[in-house]
Amino acid sequence: QVQLVESGGDLVQAGGSLRLSCAASGRTFSRYTMGWFRQAPGKEREFVAAISGSGGSTFYADSVKGRFTISRDNANNALYLQMNSLKPEDTAVYYCAEHRTAYSLSALDRRYQYDVWGQGTQVTVSS
Length: 127
What we know:
Layout: E1 3-7, E2 11-13, E3 18-25, E4 34-39, E5 46-51, E6 58-60, E7 68-73, E8 78-83, E9 92-99, E10 114-117, E11 121-126
Parallel strand pairs: 2-11
Antiparallel strand pairs: 1-3, 3-8, 4-5, 4-9, 5-6, 7-8, 9-10, 9-11
């Protein structure tokens, strides 16, 4: 059974940093594009960042480009999101997700392309 478990969410002041982690199990991790999404209260879940199976290609939403860095450790089936220069508008529940198709980068910013999701971790940025 495929499972994703996020950790690392916390309350932080604006301008601070956090590192989110996602532990994966159940499928050959290195074959799949992984993504981070977030959902703020009353808003749709939105794309944050994605990384190819090899880790060689990364993609970011414009709102986080230059502040967030996605990375992965395939030897340990782990995904990370380093978040710097945090803003109050980054407050949300953050989810990691695994692309439904091995070796694919298709529509990696779309929720429907991901078929495995974690339970989420809360990030709160105070002003």
